[in-house]
Amino acid sequence: MKLSVGLKIANSLSLTPQLQQAIRLLQLSSLELEQEIQVQLDSNPLLEKIEDQDTSEELSILEIESPDKDLTTELNADHLPDDLPVDTDWDDVYTHQPTSLGSAEFEEREDNRQGHQSLQAHLLEQVNLLNFSKIDQLIAHCIIDSIDDKGFLEVDLTEITASVQHLLQSISYEDEVEHDEVLVVLKHIQRLDPIGVGSRNLAECLLVQLEILSEDVPCRNDAIKLMQHYELLISNELPKLIKQTGLNQDQLRKAVDLLKTLKPHPGLDFEDKESNYQIPDVVVMKKNDCWQVMLNPDVMPKLRINSFYANMIKRADQSEDNQYLRNNMLEAKNFIKSIDERHKTLLKVATCIVEHQRMFLEIGAEGMKPLVLRDIAEEVELHESTVSRVTTNKYMLTPRGLFELKYFFSSHVGTTSGGEASSTAIRAKIKKLIAEENTRKPLSDNAIAVLLKADGIDVARRTVAKYRESLHIASSSERKVLI
């Protein structure tokens, strides 16, 4: 075999460090981008963040326009001017951060949120006020530790009895704890605030709340009878329920109305309701009958090259310090360019999505059009993977609410006219039909499919069932209300 040297020309694609950085920044959320920018600011001395630029510029302009004005001279003048110079500017003491929807009223607000108390802590405070023995207090602590966030007891009483016995044996207590002792303590806990906490199921929770009510409450006894046969109530077997309870249909209806006033999950009042709010990356507003798309200025970082360090760089100097400044300046420029490209790409994709989903912005989810990543990628001349990165963990604020960009992409179903309908729009139509149905005669999946076909959407019964289950809507037999 003969060895030889040859020249070959070929095209190849290589990911430079700058391109890798741009791709990585493209898929970051606004919070992750803020963290990445802070890391770069801490590590690169030539990169700096622009802050309070407008205020400093305004102050410098004022100093240039009136460098020789003196307050004493103005006050001693024969005629006082309408506008007197002052020793401070309003912008010095009142600053605000611009937002996408207007200006904030105050720069800083006092944090007046109240401390959150857990359900367990609330119950323990009440147990300490009861005249319990040491053993009963230990049993109460074991029961309270086993209560979930909804207020239900999630373990069996035998497990609690075994746990209490094990703890007593660890301190050399020889007497045995009876099951009835645990049950008595549980009954006391169920009557603490909130009423019904520590119940083992929904029926017991509602029954405890009914027993606490005064006997003068109308339909109280009828509701207690009803809960004694709650299996028939859940299965909606009205004839058997009337026969077993001895109540007529009107009494059953009033008893059910009383049950609806009770709390099915007493522990939810102590749930930490502090929400994690998402910051929109894109804001869509309608002005002069035209939908405008803009980037949220609150999440747009304002970066620049530090002029002081940049002026220290010398062209012909090859020293280590000068080379360090050169490298950091190049990295800072590439980082700023990558951030700018990220925002341009995001705005381009978001604008294209709004062009496709105008009907959604006008009438809601029923106007959603079928859309896939390929459609957007072809229009903005990007690869599908790039569009996927742009739309991941990015949010758009619209008059209809806050949505992730991925929400506007959906599969399609054929229509009777030969067109296409979005699966999101079909789900919205199914939800609307069920909301308007007669609860005594709820629509079956087949009936919904017929109504959708009359509206021009050709879907099978199984498709309707799949969409209904994705909306967490029960079947027609479970939605039926007889009383």
From TrEMBL:
Q: Does the keyword Transit peptide apply?
A: no
Instruction: Describe the location of the RNA polymerase sigma factor 54 DNA-binding domain by residue ranges.
Output: 323-480
Its BP terms in the Gene Ontology are:
DNA-templated transcription initiation
User: What UniProt keywords are attached to this protein's entry?
Assistant: DNA-binding, DNA-directed RNA polymerase, Nucleotidyltransferase, Sigma factor, Transcription, Transcription regulation, Transferase
Gene Ontology, cellular component aspect: DNA-directed RNA polymerase complex
Q: RNA polymerase sigma factor 54 core-binding domain: from which residue to which, for each copy?
A: 112-309
Q: Which GO terms describe its molecular function?
A: DNA binding; DNA-binding transcription activator activity; nucleotidyltransferase activity; sigma factor activity
Q: Which Pfam families match?
A: Sigma54_AID (PF00309), Sigma54_CBD (PF04963), Sigma54_DBD (PF04552)
What InterPro entries does the entry give? RNA_pol_sigma_54, RNA_pol_sigma_54_core-bd, RNA_pol_sigma_54_DNA-bd, RpoN_core-bd_sf
Functional note: Sigma factors are initiation factors that promote the attachment of RNA polymerase to specific initiation sites and are then released.
Q: Which family does it belong to?
A: Belongs to the sigma-54 factor family.
- Name the UniProt record assigns to this protein: RNA polymerase sigma-54 factor
- Can you name the source organism? Acinetobacter wanghuae
